[in-house]
Amino acid sequence: MSQAEGGRPDAPDSASRAYTDFTRSLSYGEYLKIDTLLSAHQPLTQAHDEHLFISVHHVSEVWLGLIVQELKAAVALLASGVTDTPLKMLSRVVRAQEQMTNAWEVLKTMTPADYLQFRDSFGQASGFQSAQYRMMEFLLGNRNPALLRPFEHRPDLHGPLHAALHAPSIYDLTLRLLPGHGLPLPPEVLERDLSQPYTRHPAVLAAWLSVYRDPQRYWDLYELAEKLIDVEDNFRRWRFNHLTTVERTIGFKSGSGGTSGAGYLRRALETVLFPELWEVRTNL
Ligand code: HEM
């Protein structure tokens, strides 16, 4: 900054110094492919609120993309026994989840009447068919082979989801670290059928009890466990806000994806990803 500008960051002529010739260098819009990004915004009706509806779905998918990327990186590191770097990735996941949850505040400004103006246009489309959401759930350990079915017509989506369903989740990998810390676990935990939902096991609870009773001794496991709790806590918040938004928008009508709607989403709220990490608190 020059003295002529008096050290003020908002000096009147500062914008005139900005680069303006992009015939030979990459501009903001070209780097970020903004035209491509915005071209995905294609309302099917003239309804004012369809713009909002599409925008909130799009930003949620962008955050999901980041969450999936961070979870995959954390999973790869945990698989090789690294426990510190994944904490940074999970912290970022937690922040991105908060952004997704905040998005409901914007969507909540849409009333049921606003929604009905464009509801019929998108037929059977539903977030139930979100590949990135399912990838996030599979990485976190919410396993259910039936959830792959909506992707059978898209091998490019089905393949990676199928692989993730059969690979260890972030919790499976965390549990595999315990024996190396002198906390043995039985084969039915360490060699379980990964495509099925994880079920709680008393030996896992006992191991986490040891960790939570002596955090200094098992600091890396303790920190990782608390970060997983942060992730599940935020996941629940997103789910709860989704359910509430759904109830205030469509009441108890069935969902566009074919489920019972609010009833289905309420049951999903009962899912527990890391059961022993919640249970351990009761036993301390
Ligand atoms: C007013 C707006 C919305 C309504 C009325 C709505 C409604 C529903 C309903 C009823 C379901 C159950 C499945 C079905 O369709 O039968 C569902 C699932 C889902 N929705 Fe939404 N939704 C809305 C907004 C959003 C937004 C903004 C996202 C962001 C990506 C989203 C993501 C999802 C996901 C991921 C599922 C699957 C949940 C699971 O299987 O546990 N929804 N939605």
TrEMBL record:
Pfam families membership: Trp_dioxygenase
Q: What is this protein called?
A: Tryptophan 2,3-dioxygenase
What does the record's cofactor remark say about binding? Binds 1 heme group per subunit.
One of this protein's GO BP terms?
A: L-tryptophan catabolic process to acetyl-CoA
- What is annotated about its quaternary structure and interactions? Homotetramer.
What role is this protein assigned?
A: Heme-dependent dioxygenase that catalyzes the oxidative cleavage of the L-tryptophan (L-Trp) pyrrole ring and converts L-tryptophan to N-formyl-L-kynurenine. Catalyzes the oxidative cleavage of the indole moiety.
**Could you say which protein family the record assigns here?**
Belongs to the tryptophan 2,3-dioxygenase family.
Superkingdom of the organism of origin: Bacteria
Q: In which pathway does it act?
A: Amino-acid degradation; L-tryptophan degradation via kynurenine pathway; L-kynurenine from L-tryptophan: step 1/2
Where do the annotations place substrate binding? Answer: Y115, R119
Q: Which reaction does it catalyse?
A: L-tryptophan + O2 = N-formyl-L-kynurenine
User: Which SUPFAM superfamilies does the UniProt entry name for this protein?
Assistant: Indolic compounds 2,3-dioxygenase-like (SSF140959)
The enzyme's main class, written as a single word, is oxidoreductase
Its keywords, alphabetically, are:
Dioxygenase, Heme, Iron, Metal-binding, Oxidoreductase, Tryptophan catabolism
MF-aspect GO terms: heme binding; L-tryptophan 2,3-dioxygenase activity; metal ion binding
Detail which positions bind heme: H242
Q: Which cofactor does it need?
A: heme
EC number(s) on record? 1.13.11.11
Gene3D superfamilies given for it?
Answer: 1.20.58.480
